[in-house]
Amino acid sequence: MRTSMLKSQKARVMKYETPANRKRVNLTVREDVMSEAQALDINISRAAEAGIEAALKAEQSRRWREDNADAIRAHNERIEREGMALPTPWWAEEEV
Known about the structure:
Blueprint: H1 2-14, H2 31-39, H3 44-67, H4 69-82
C-alpha cells in the first residue's frame, strides 16, 4: 500500500519536471487564501495553473455542447422516433 502511494505521488510530481514554456503574470489573490496556501506549502504557481486549466476545460466543454446542441437534439429525437440502430444488449435489458 505504501509503495503504491509513493509511486502515485511521484507520478504527480514528475508531471512538472519536464520544462514547459512559462509566462510570468501578476495575479491578485485574497490574503486569507494566500496565507493558508503558504502555510500548507502549496506551490502557488502550480495551483493557479491547475485552476486555470480546469476553467479552460469547463469552458471548452460548455462551448462544445453549445456548438453541437442542434446535432445532439436531432440525434436524440431520431432515437426517440426510430429507436436504437442496434438492439439493446442482453445485459442492459430491463427485467419485467
